[in-house]
## 1
Amino acid sequence: MKKRFSLILWAGIIFSVLVVSACGQSTAIKELYLKKEIRIPMRDGKKLYTAIYIPRDSSRNYPILLQRTPYSVMPYGTDKYRKKLGPSADFVQSGYIFVYQDVRGRFMSEGKYVNMRPYIEHKSEKEQIDESTDTYDTIEWLIKHLAHTNGRVGMWGISYPGFYTAMGIIDAHPALKAASPQAPIADWFIGDDMHHNGALSLTMAFNFFSVFGQPRPVPVDHWPKRFEHGTPDGWQFFINMGLLSAADLLYFHHRISFWDDLMQHPVYDTFWQKRNILPHLKNIQPAVLVVGGWYDAEDLYGTLHIYQRIEQEDKQNKNRIVMGPWFHGGWARSDGQRLGDLRFGSKTSLYYRQKIEFPFFEYYLKDRGNFSPAEATMFDGGANQWHYFRKWPPEGVKSRNLYLSDNQKVSWTAPSAEMQCDEFWSDPQKPVPFIDQITNTWGRLYMVADQRFAAKRPDVRVYQSEIVSDSLTVAGPITADLFISTTGTDADWVVKLIDVYPDATPNFKPNPCKIQMAGYQHLVRAEIFRSKFRNSYEHPEALQPSQITEIKFPLQDVFHTFLPGHRIMIQIQSSWFPLFDRNPQTFTNIYEAKAEDFHGQWHRLYHSAAYPSHLKLPVLKNE
């Protein structure tokens, strides 16, 4: 009778959750859950502030779902409740013990905060700590002290919390059975957030650390104020700021310690290397669901490489990946039906949350259902379809070279001319904008934005295919292989792969912004590379003026079908501002560069028999 009554009570309250959640209120959460706030001790004596939401129905046991975050477990106070719990509303209805923790040194937790705190592989002292030990100690305390647990723990988190989730599966606590690192950070110099191939993500690093990096002399329960640019035009703001060294001189005044770290470590030295999580992802025991978005402007690199690294040793076949047509965290923060000017034909985020994420945790934490998804669940952003693969990159992929050709063309046939090149002038005082908008943030839309604005500039080289007659699907990692020369001693290279829509493409309805989809140049993938790192990220080398040099670098994975009637376009340029900092085009430590180091230079792109610049594309055979 008691069990029946509790089920009736639970069902009634769940109905109120569904009604009230639509209003964005936490009243129903309070009816379902009791909130506790605990300072959990770590092995070195520091205590981490932890908010715990426990189901009021004590007639059964529940798994624990843990998130560790540097972004605050707000609201603080046992009488103040979060508006949402867990990855989605399904988890609230099913019943979990939800645990949120301020990581060491952030907000209300004790200790010193360290950005991407390095993992200590061989701990010689009992009290040595890193994020894996803090996760272990947290789970140990929860299992021992919380009533009505079933002894199983899951973790999840997006972006920085995704990093903490990935760190938590290293030397994992035996009770940690399932983890979902979502858009996790892997390496802040090679491909995530703050740098791409050694080029500084200027807008992101500046904006992020101007707030996140402010000192915390004592525990605080609120965020610091946002940085005020004084203008909505980020391009002009950073042009006016001028040198990178001016950030401290004009704005930070050495109060942002990690910005100082950035400026003091311009190469891939031990500071960055020990923050690379990938070498430590060994002998992973929990089931892992890696999640990311093809249009993630921040941590696409980490998502793909963390999955790939775990997969190398996944003997239990418990490591899986999901990639959808999403911005950073879009699978949790939207219905996934659209992004910017694009439409994807279905509510892709709802599909993921209901059919993959929720069943994943239910299976491994509650033994419910029969969770047996594909190894790789991938959304094709050109054909707007989900596909399910036994491995990623998928079987049946053939590497094909798409060559730059004369007359602004691309060709599947290697060039035969003895010497052929295109030349353009690159001026660091007039860098190419990364998007055709007035904005002072990095945003999310540039990952799919129409590139017609860039194609019209003289410092952007454009190469385009004939009309595609049959569907062509690219599935896997892309590599740019360029042969270049410059009159300077350094240069950046930005390579874009673009899907050009037919001129007869109709506009979407409704279309309040009057977006013209005819001839739309849909950015599929783009990446930047700094020439001085062509042989080593640790030991940069100057270019020899006017000497032909090969520059080879990855553009990350894609899954995109170029439909019949479309064209394939490649754009190449030498600046992408202020998404990335300006290269003075003189070999120097850019973080200490002076105004006199910045010079316009002539750049050449070669496409001849001896120097066949091309993209290496993984083309999937039509089924």
## 2
Amino acid sequence: MMGFNKKAVRITTVAAMIGIFTASSGTDVFAHSQDEVFAGASTLVREAMETIRNASESSDGDAFSMEIEPTIERDLSGTFMEGIYVDDIDLSGRTYDEAVKLIREKVRTMSNASITLHSVGDNYVTVTPAQLGMKWDDTGVIADALYVGRSGNMVERYKQRKDLQHDKKVYPLNVKFDRDKITQVVAEQGKLYDVEGKDAVLTKSDGDFHITPGTTGEKTDVNASVSRIMSNLDSFDGSDISIDLVVIEDVPKAREEDLEKIHDIIGSFKTSFKSSGADRSGNVRNGTRLVNGTVMLPGDSFSMYKTVSPFTEENGYYLAGSYLNGMVVESLGGGICQVSSTLYNAVLRAELQVDERHNHSMVVNYVDLSSDAAISGTSKDFKFTNNSEYPIYIEGITTEDKQVIFNIYGVETRPENRKVSFESEKLSETVPEGEKIVADPAAPIGSITTQSAHTGYTGKLWKIVTVDGKETERTEVNKSTYQPSPKTATVGTATDNPTAAAMIQAAMASGSIDTVKATIGELKAAAEAAAALGL
């Protein structure tokens, strides 16, 4: 900042004599001297003086302050003084453009050096500085070097030139590297030789648990390795170098000593599928097989859908009945919801954390109200988390007499005198009215399938805790609503006979399934009579 008044503007006498103007922001000093080293410097001084003069004339006579921040572009004409170097490049007598060209050529040569990154074991990868994004754009240092011996006042310039006669001035060649590219190289190349740790494996056969020990591996610590590489390249001079990546142990999550603790059944439940046909029974057995043997460490989450999908023949599924929009339809995997519901009840009794659960659209007969857990694609899933302090093992069994059983093993930490049970409560009941008739234009006329009526319900599931036989807690687990569905008939309507088509449409319009069945009987009788007459 400078102080002025209208009557007097003080300018340092020495500065006026040699034409020095210093920007108040602390930027470089620009000289206007007899040899006119910096073209335009005198103009700069005149402009500054004019600014001061105008400011003083506009003042009311009192002192004021102003800050002058001229935008100054360096004059890059002329040549370098003797003894100026950038790294080992002698710039003496060269122009600015020649200097930049020489440096870029050196950087291009440096970019072909070999950088060896030592990875896991005795493995390594070799890359070039170019692959690590090396670049040079520090043109400002060249401009600084060009100013040596030509900036400052007469005394300063003289001293700079005399110093160069005794000792050369060397500027560093500041090449830079791209951290993102180094990260990519380490992630893609350095990790090629990572040896993953293997979890210990827990299995159960013949009533006993068996543990296969895990192994500790080695892996590249990407972030730490990138930081080490960047540090090693701070003073890169183009020579071949070797850098050890940071290698750390990959400790398995499932350890033998943890799995050895699993021995208690902390939750168990079973349901019956005796009324199921062969295909639905096959789906229940297959889904149970896919869940069986699941080990969950503390904090692990489980998704029923992810565990038992995809629902394809290749994955062991058959076509069987399932609910869809209030109807029973054939689908691959029909019956898998019984597997999900049985596991849900075992999880509740183990008091694990339920994250997602949905009831069916209509009631099911294998569990009580609000005790089911439907799955349907990704829109309905059953998910839970092992929020205990120990690993758990899920055992899934299907028996010859068509029972599906889930046992959840872990470490029992609950007091012996504390018991958990569950109670289903019916809140409301809705009896469906009338009948529903659905046309199936793809099925031949005369075909008919019926679905019995389903009563609608609203229910709650309660968790009850007793200590020494006395109830201490009663908590609502969920509230579920099941839609009513009337008795439904799906009727085939495909025919080339307009008379038959009109008859079946009229029967369907009556809204009576019995009327439709009677009409179908008439159509069949007419068809049989016509066949007997050879018509």
## 3
Amino acid sequence: MAKEKKTPQQFSADPAAQQMLIRAESLGIGTAFTRAEAMPACNIGSAGMCCKMCGMGPCRLTKDGSTGVCGATIDTIQARNFVRMVAAGSAAHSDHGRDMAFLLKAVANGEAEGYSIRDVAKLRVTAAKYGIPIEKRSPEEIADVLADLFIAQFGQQRGELAPIKRAPAKRQKLWHERGVVPRGIDREVVEGLHRTHIGDDQHPEHLLQHAVRIALADGWGGSMIATDIADILFGTPAPVVGQTNLGVLKADMVNVIVHGHEPVLSEMIVAASQTPEIIAYAKAAGANGVNLAGICCTANEILMRQGVPAAGNFLHQELAILTGAVEAMVVDVQCIMQALVGLAENFHTKVITTSTKVKIKGATHMEFDEHHAMTIAKDILKVAIDNFKNRGAIEIPQVIEDLVPGFSHEYINYMLGGSYRASFRPLNDAIMSGRIRGVAAIVGCNNPRSQQDYLHTHVTRELLKQDVLVVETGCSAIASAKLGLLLGEAGLDQVGAGLREICETVGIPPVLHMGACVDNTRILTVLTQMVEEGGLGDDIDQIPAVGLAPEWMSEKAVAIATYCVASGAYVIFGGSSPFEGMPDRVTGSDAILHYLSAGWEQLYGGKLEFVEDPDEMVRLTLEHIDKKRAALGLPEWKADKFGRSGDKRMNELEALPLDMKMAAVYGSVN
């Protein structure tokens, strides 16, 4: 029997995406959604039972007790595959951090056209954390020394990474005891590749311990460096008003999509698009100006700092081109589909690659160099503007949603306590009292193997009902933004009573946008500050918090999960596990998955589990939060305990007649 064809509604929960998928079908154009549907998953490879790391293979271990040609067992092969995923993911995010460090050095020495140090306060605070003298020194002098320190973290061979000292003291001690403190970012990645070469490390648990060391080099190293430098150079995010979804594209303007992950290019394109020269050039071409929009994590970077709209998350990259209204899609690194070039040939869109590390056959390559940043950014925009005259029929979904992004850990600190008493005390107190049951960090990619956005938004909505404060990054944040959950007033009628009080009193959305996927280190910083504030234990593993990646897809997600687990967090991945093991489940995944869960929990207090059903994800999250509350001796969470105070309650009282108001406040009045 032929497999029943999926509808656009089954492919995506987003109405804008559904409209574009209908258009794609009418034009006979395939997308990632239809390609995923047409390509059945390899049961052997997806379960981690295939080894192709030498010329004697590939070895496919499909029978109980079978081994590779070299004798490698299923446990060893799966552990090696896991290590390589962590190494690749860590390399991607940390290499981003390296580029940012070199840019900081260039800016400090006046060698980067158009860039400057925008957040001097963040520069001084960051430098002081590493013991760099800041008094009587110019910002450029401080930045130069800080850049050298950061650059050294990548090639360092001995000792330990400097950012490790920013973790809770108890956690640092644990890492030292376990022997997983990273020595240098590049060293740990290279050693991971060495250990997984034919004939090297063959002990699954020993291999997975090094996966922890690699991941820590990313989370408490390369990614943390990237986020700090982005804040220093482009400004630490604070709430701004923005918009999201394909409706942000403009019919009367030159539409330029910036897609990828590094803010170095996108920030300069934003600046160039606002220059009189480019505005005049666009108007001379018959357009009303240049309209920028982002896709993926580049979208989050310029959204939270500049308010530039986000056209969508990962699976929107093809759909944006399908509108026919995009003059150029400018890409840098990571999560860029090779299919874009072939798709663009059906329209007038130019796909422009810009990184020294990324070329796509058939794309236009305009290599970006920070030393000539403004000049190159203008040249890229002029190529897009010149293409405006070639536009054909367009179809822009009139689907758009407002949002408020930009909740850096610095701003959360400020919003809770104010300018003179910035503190995480109110957050800790809200958790301790039970107004907030716990915290969930929902992060990660889209995956066309599941309905786009559904897992993210279903889990988010269900946790909000249970008084769980949600923080989000990356594609997950954009998914919630499309539903209006990143607005202060949106969805509060569906939020638990205690959490609603907090949102109304502080003036925050029920979901806090904390940036791009590289900015998951902000979440580590928040958890560390909560520990330091007191009342919720003395280490991250004691906090009632859970991390979830409902639609994970990339190797970066595996690296992020691993450093979060090593930091003490319970992490849940949606979808199937990449280590399903043997059909009879006698060997294989049972051993590896058990170690990633129970084994790592014993060692680090955190664990990684794969859960397909979204309602089970919610159940396990709440179960873990309640377990941590009980261990801290906090009162049991009760749904009906709070909900009649805060600003909204005061407004309700103000509207009542005096006698009813007195009765509401003081009880019955005789």
